[in-house]
Amino acid sequence: MVLDPAHGGTDPGARGTEGITESDEVLQFATATKKALEARGFQVILTREGNDNPSFDDRSARANAQRGAVFITLHIASTGLTGTARVYVEPEVPASNNITGLIPWDRAQAPFLSLSRKLGDLVQQELSKRFKGSPDTLQTAPVRQLRTTAAPAIAVEISSVSVKERAELDRMVPGVAEAIARGLTDFRPTYVVPTIPVPGGSVQP
Amino acid sequence: MTPKWTVWLGGVLLAAVIAAALYFPALRRQVNKAKDLTEKTAEQARRELLPVAPVSTGDPMVKVKMFWGSRGQEGELMPVTVELPLSREPVLRAKQVLNTLLAGPVDAESRTLPPDAALLAFYILPDGTGVADFSDEIRTSIPSGIQSEQLAVESIVRTLESNVPQVLRLKILIHGQEADTLAGHVDLTQLFRVNAKDAAGTQLDNPSPPGSKLPAPIRKAVETMRKATKR
User: Fold this and answer.
1) How far is Cα B69 from Cα B105, in angstroms, rounded to an integer?
2) A85 and chain B: CB distance < 8 Å anywhere?
3) Optimal mutation site among B76, B113, B144, interface A, most CBs of chain A within 10 A
4) pLDDT tens string A122-160
5) Structure ipTM
6) Taking CB atoms and an 8 Å cutoff, what residues of chain B touch A22?
7) C-alpha span between B65 and A3 (Å, rounded)
């Protein structure tokens, strides 16, 4: 399980009132989610533990380097209804005319898209139970981080850094962690690493 | 007794001082005149740089759908019909609708793009790919986030879709350069499908015909590989 607290280092991400930055706040959410997941027996890697900023590809590589990983990138928006959370997956990624059985890096998400949607639905259901005003269904958006990830991958975006007090965001931390952990627990039994169809057989990534 | 040459030197210097004193007011007048001139051109240049919607009086008034943010539904777009003089020429038309989109709706809350962002260039490639080049403010002034960036791109794409059928897909550049993301989230390295008629997937995947833009040696290598795999 790879958890990705977005931004960091010189990139603060979204900036809100009272000096709240996406990069700082998201680390809290990631740490709490890691604990909730570990309590359920998942092995969890964070793409960053401190205030550094690995590249999009470096972050994807953490998931792509292992078989059977799941990738969740965590964000805090500067817009949206305060106290809500949305799950995003990549829109349809065009399949490549692949003859090698290898997954092209820039379209790594393609074979995992239906799994990502399944995971996204489960997490979004859990989030909308806990956070009133969140959408019931997952959204699609071409999130750069997801495209190069060869694993079921979703982005969770929390609203927002524009809260009046930091405490409003802090209150959401346990709920988000729990929703992700629950969603992932439900997803686990259905996760089978997909095969890539190639002429004359199929290859597992 | 002073040598003759010092008298000469003194005389020459005195003449130079007198000449300079006489010339100075004229020089100052010239400098002032030049300053006025450069100030005017700077002002002119600034005005030329400002994005002015290319509206020609000859263009017929057309009802166009602009996609701005919906007030009731956060994160959703809402079509607003406005009447604009619109060119029949697709590139000019695209510029006109995008400049109107950037100028924003009456209700500033429904903006999808930052007010200080400008469209620097727009062109359409022969294969139907539209290229829109925006100024840096589209990245620096937009509220960062998946929702806000997605809304910005969608409003551009859907406004083009409903008003400029010649644009099949869109590439967004920032200040003439390809950008990784808009403001940290939404992917700008790929093409956005504008027109549903655009052949599903294949076009987006490979916007130009296979190998058409590749240098000759690489194209040959690709062809050889293709033949080899067919065998």
Assistant:
1) 9
2) no
3) B144
4) 999 999 999 999 999 999 999 999 999 999 999 999 998
5) 0.90
6) 144
7) 41
Of residues A28 and B107, more confidence is placed in A28
Q: Which helix or strand (DSSP H or E) is residue A31 part of?
A: helix A22-39
Count the alpha carbons within 13 Å of B56 in the hemisphere toward its beta carbon. Answer: 8
Domain boundaries, chain A: 2-203
Higher pLDDT, B71 or A13: A13
For chain B, say whether A59 makes contact (Cβ under 8 Å): no
For residue A75, the chain B residue with the least C-alpha distance is B145
Determine the topology of domain A2-203 in CATH: Aminopeptidase (3.40.630)
How many CB atoms within 10 Å of residue B86? 21
For B2, the token pair is 């002073």
pLDDT at B200: 46
Query: Over the stretch A92-128, which tens digit does the pLDDT of each residue have?
Result: 866 656 667 677 888 899 899 999 999 999 999 999 9
Lowest mean pLDDT among B20-34, B124-138, B164-178: B20-34
Residue B135 reports pLDDT greater than 50 = yes
Per CB-CB distance under 8 Å, the chain B contacts of A14 are 143-145, 184
- Give the closest-approach CA distance of A75 to chain B in angstroms: 8
- B39-51: b or e for each residue (b if 16 or more CB lie within 10 Å)? eeeeeeeeeeeeb
